[in-house]
Specification:
By secondary structure, this protein is α+β, with helices and mostly antiparallel strands. It is about 30% helix and about 15% strand. The protein has helices at about 20-55, 65-70; strands spanning about 100-105, 115-120, 130-135, 145-150. Strands 1-2-3-4 form a four-stranded antiparallel β-sheet, with no helix packed on it.
Length: about 150
């Protein structure tokens, strides 16, 4: 058995929409926006971690190179890393020599741990006037070794 329902005269039949369809689209748009924001946040954190790793590993002065440095040597003749550290441990270091410009380098390329730092101080003429080891956070103060020239 078959039944036939005639179409309404003058109006084609439109597909009926459920009353929840606008809410479904709004939820989908909100989920897409939240997903994009979360993805951007993850990308930003990854970029920051990458930049930290790059800057910290390019500010390492090898212990043998540090030991070979002699006070009185001009800065231009020293083979130093291409970067200095961004957050020097000046609170753990002894007072720098009067009028000296100090640079800090990491003693190790380890990341996310406290390491010893090397402090190199130069006078106005660019000569190395002091070099010293700044111990890692929590390290013994007696481990600090400083060389000066005057």
């Amino acid at each position: 058995m078959r039944a036939h329902v005639p179409e309404r005269a003058g109006r084609p039949s439109a597909p009926s929409r459920a009353p929840s369809a606008p809410f479904t689209r709004a939820r989908r748009r909100a989920a897409t926006a939240l997903g994009a924001a979360a993805g951007a946040g993850v990308a930003l954190v990854a970029a920051a971690a990458g930049w930290y790793a790059y800057t910290e590993t390019h500010a390492v002065l090898e212990p043998a190179a540090y030991a070979a440095l002699r006070t009185g040597t001009p800065l231009t003749s020293l083979a130093l890393p291409d970067r200095q550290i961004q957050d020097p441990p000046s609170d753990r270091a002894p007072a720098p020599p009067e009028g000296a410009d100090c640079r800090y380098y990491r003693a190790s390329g380890e990341l996310f741990v406290s390491v010893d730092h090397y402090r190199l101080c130069f006078d106005d003429e660019g000569r190395l006037v002091a070099k010293g080891v700044v111990p890692r956070a929590g390290g013994r103060r007696s481990a600090t070794h400083e060389e000066f020239t005057r």
